[in-house]
Amino acid sequence: MFTMYTRILFALALGTFATGRSANLPSASGRACNNSPLLCSKPYDTVTYLGAHDSPYLRDESTTFSSFGNQFFSTTVQLDAGVRMLQGQIHASSNKDTGQRELHLCHTSCDLFDAGSLKDWLLEVRKWMDSNPNEVITILLVNNGIKAKELEDVYSQADVARYGYVPPKIDTPPPPSNETETTWPTLDEMINRNERLVSFISPLVPDAQNAPYLLDQWTFMWENPYLVTNPSNFTCLPDRPEDLPLQEAKESGRLFMMNHFLYWQQAFGIQVPDIRFVNVTNAWEGPGSLGEHLMTCSGMVQRQPTFVLVDFFNVGPAIKAVDIFNKVDVPVGRKNVTSNVVPGGAGMFWGAARRSAEVSIWGVGFAVLAAVVLSMVL
């Protein structure tokens, strides 16, 4: 008897699963879109995009292999290797030279992990897009009280706003594309119009006049739980927006972002990316693997996830599972990167550096505790 997974794989092979559309067709333009000519004719909402969770927060020599880092390689390397969704967090900070207000990419707090200014990071993305004109990119920014106009100013300063995609309605998601109706443009169409950057902000009050290309995440997207510490606890049920039933999520037109990464619980309630299981977490098969999670969720939702968010994207490699779901056998123009845990990248909790790691975590823990106590006193 066929298992559910076998039936899903058969459906994928036939090209009829999840979208109701026929198998991928080669691009009439002759180009490769997002590393494959077979994806050019597909509507944006019927492709699965590999996402780098906390893209700018690195675990490399520049951060002394910080255990808070989520990726081994820079955003540019991520894009070169096939990542097509970049996620980060934005906070109001200040320029270290002028003291003026400046938006930064900070991990939880700018005092704990500051990856630099949003402008500089968007410049990096824009330069990559300039050099890769056949690629459609998605950005997801977790917002901490920043208004659309201020964000638009930074997008414009980085000269990336010109790539922004504006949907017909910015306050309502379109219904899902199907075999009879295409509700999102195809990758080919987005590339031809040079509207190749889709930006979701979580949350955001839309500003149709000043920044119509900056979209509220929860209007257009839903996600499964993200605070997972055990590989057996990955699920497919909606977590945000809150109180959203699965059936309503499926019918709403919102795009499904499948979180697939693990946290490792430390002292004082601190959580760091879990490097211990990443070889299986990002693999095609195995307990708690990316491939297993993709197949389970696709069966429940009856569509393949639009976005798959992972830590340490190169390990697994995670792109393999995404390629299988997109039916991409031979990617075009993608650069190779090691699929191993980077030497030193196992973090400060391993080997000879374990003691310094414990000191570091305890130090951060005491700093957090002191901040809480101080806030209570004040």
Automatic annotation (TrEMBL):
Annotated Gene3D superfamilies: Phosphatidylinositol (PI) phosphodiesterase
Signal peptide extent: 1-23
The keyword Signal appears for this protein: yes
SUPFAM superfamilies: PLC-like phosphodiesterases
Pfam families listed in its UniProt record: PI-PLC_X (PF26146)
One biological process term in Gene Ontology: lipid metabolic process
GO-annotated molecular function: phosphoric diester hydrolase activity
InterPro entries cross-referenced by the UniProt entry: PI-PLC_domain, PLC-like_Pdiesterase_TIM-brl
Keywords: Signal
Protein name: PLC-like phosphodiesterase
